[in-house]
Amino acid sequence: xxxxxxxxxxxxxxxxxxxxxxxxxxxxxxxxxxxxxxxxxxxxxxxxxxxxxxxxxxxxxxxxxxxxxxxxxxxxxxxxxxxxxxxxxxxxxxxxxxxxxxxxxxxxxxxxxxxxxxxxxxxxxxxxxxxxxxxxxxxxxxxx
Length: 144
Known about the structure:
- This protein is of the alpha+beta class.
- The chain is built from two helices and eight strands; from the N terminus they run E-E-E-E-E-E-E-E-H-H.
- The strands form four sheets. It has a two-stranded antiparallel sheet.
- The protein is elongated, with a radius of gyration of 39 Å.
- It comes from Ciona intestinalis.
- This is EGF-like domain-containing protein.
- The chain crosses the membrane at residues 101-124.
């Protein structure tokens, strides 16, 4: 981007030089690389935002992520080594019950209802057969 008054380039953060085509050198950051990395950084800092590099990653943690033990710990919705990859947030836990478990419980309940219904039918049929057999006098069957 150029200044419309003097024609000089206005560099984005992390770039410097007359035509903004040079990346900031080690230890500097910001537009035109005019800012110095914080003294608290164990190694270098990010040339765009001045945040300390995270471990061996040649970048700082982005999008609200924080550096813990040399690795970026990303907030919900972001992932990747430097938290720049958008990911679907993890849905809240349902207390350990998954859809598969619920489906299995429904199927078992239906099977139990079917078996129970069949037992009632069989018991009823058996009872009616027993009643029918008791009401028949075997002498009547064989004496004919």
